[in-house]
Amino acid sequence: MRFRLTLLWPLIAALLFSLNLSAREFVLLDKVIAIVNDDIVMQSELQQRVRSVTNRLEAQGTPLPPRSVMERRVLEQLILESIQLQRADQAGIRISDNQLNQTISNIARSNRMTLEEFEQQLEQEGETFASAREQIRREMIVTRLQQREVDRRVRVTDQEIENFLDSKEGRTRSGAEYYIGHILIAIPDTANKEEEAKATTRAQSILEELRNGADFQQMAVAKSDGRQALKGGIIGWRKENELPSIAADVIPRLDIREPSDLIRTSSGYHILTVLEKRGGQQQIVEQAKVRHILIAPDELRTDEEAKAMIDKLYERIRNGDDFGTLAKSNSDDPVSAIDGGDLGWVSPGQMVPEFEQTMQETPKGEISEPFRSSFGWHILNVQERRQQDIGAMVQTNEARQVIHRRKYEEELANWLLEIKDEAYIDIKDERYEDIEGLNS
Questions:
Q1: pTM across the whole model
Q2: What is the spatial distance between Cα 345 and Cα 144, in angstroms, rounded to a whole number?
């Protein structure tokens, strides 16, 4: 628990006076470990965090360092956390109960648990739900502060993206992946000319059937001599730089489900095909041109009130009110609201799952019923649909994200050092006074 310094000592003094305790009668139950600007770190807080970290590491099966090392590392974390929380408070960064509840629900869901199971798991690890909830809130606040302060330091140029895509790593990351099918007509090393001729005839016959429309996987099960025959001849996904040597020059030139020519090796005749393809310079997807209205719960508006608002807007639209006009005056999405709720052309995977599912299910020209996502309550309108090649855009965005992530991590480390150097830190426990860079 944290107190302001100006309140802490008068509170203790008043308590001692009111109880009329002598110095010998007073038993110290807690003490200040560190002063951090206008905040303090208490012994009890350090021990509670050490227990939490220890329990988590033990649950993961991670070997623990010596207790003294653990305490020093956790104290460093608490001090840096305190500095950031104070900065966030000054910047007015808050996490509402609704936002916190949604995040906790997402954490439970990602671990395939209900909230009740999540709470039970915490108890088994020696942590209360209340303390875990508060720690999650603090982590959310710190994350928002970091994003706000560090993101503005990061710039990714077009030249950096181009250089990355031209690099070996860039070509590996952005290259196409192929889901490969394989049929083998085996020829033993001991085969005579007659046996080899029969194998050649058989291979040509299978290839002809495939070119006439026979199902590749069915043919593999029935006629392939390869190890994957009973799996439909499926080799699996392979990136372009991971293709088998016999396929490296063949696979990239094939259309989906087009059989290759016969490929002769020492083991026999091979027929390859591309069952599916993803990535690379060509990615055809169906895009939807979408508008939406968002009503988000916040400190002043409950989830029920947000739902009531979106229901009223939905009825107004059904009764003839203009969607764009209502979006401009009511939507809580500040970017799209300016343009009447317009989100432009949206590709698969670009939106949160609830939004994407509703977008897919809403016919062109129709208005969806109100639905809930992690951002709040929405109504959406699908204006158009189209097939679009987004391969180049996807490659560019992936490159931008890789470069941004690397720069962000570098700038975050620099920023943390800066705010620690600027902070007043006074270690009050001699066991930790030699922690490098903490006393100032």
A1: 0.55
A2: 28
